[in-house]
Amino acid sequence: MAVKNLSDLYIHELKDLYSADKQSAAITKRLVKAAKNDKLKSALKDSHDGIESGMSTLKDICERHDKKATGMVCKGMKGLVEEVKAHVFDDEFSDAHVKDASIIAQNQRMTHYAIAGYGTAAAFAKALGHKEDHEALKKCLDGCYDGDRRMTDIAESTINESATD
User: For the purposes of burial, counting CB atoms within 10 Å of the CB of 144, is it exposed (0-12), middle (13-18) or buried (19 or more)?
Assistant: First the structure.
């Protein structure tokens, strides 16, 4: 894709973000099954639902601009997913709490990547005068922040302390 202006870059960002969300949704589904703590499982399920909602938003925005959300592979998220596999599924854990702590760490890395992507896309939408897009992307961004704070709360209130034993 030739990127000639901010409009092109905006569409590129939306497609990259859609790919990132698709990869993140698939691995988050696996994290739900791997987690032992009930609060963590619930937060991961909600995270998965939020990712799916974000994908729907991105698809709708792309369609409003006569573009398809598909067609790219986000290399950044691909790397993060490989990290999740290495640090959650390939590592051996003798303690479920330590594994849950690793799950939170990996989930937050992916969430921070999504925060960067949605923040950038929202800023581009605003600069381009796409008010409806901006509001929808800002809502997704806010959901990412909420999920990140929830993971931090779970880590700090139970998981991390339990993992120190």
Answer: buried
- Model confidence over 5-18: pLDDT tens digits? 999 999 999 999 99
Among candidates 32, 159, 30, 39, which has minimal Cα distance to 95? 159
Report pLDDT digits (tens) over 71-100.
Answer: 999 999 999 999 999 999 999 999 999 999
Q: What is the pTM of this model?
A: 0.95
Do 115 and 72 contact (CB within 8 A), yes or no?
Answer: no
CATH architecture of 6-163: Up-down Bundle (1.20)
How far apart CA 120 and CA 150 sit, in angstroms, is 22
| Cβ-based neighbour number of residue 157 at 10 Å | 10
Radius of gyration of the chain (CA): 17
Q: What phi and psi, each to the nearest 5 degrees, are found at residue 130? A: -90, 80
Q: How far apart are CA 107 and CA 113, in angstroms?
A: 10
Provide DSSP, 20-65: HHHHHHHHHHHHHHH--SHHHHHHHHHHHHHHHHHHHHHHHHHHHT
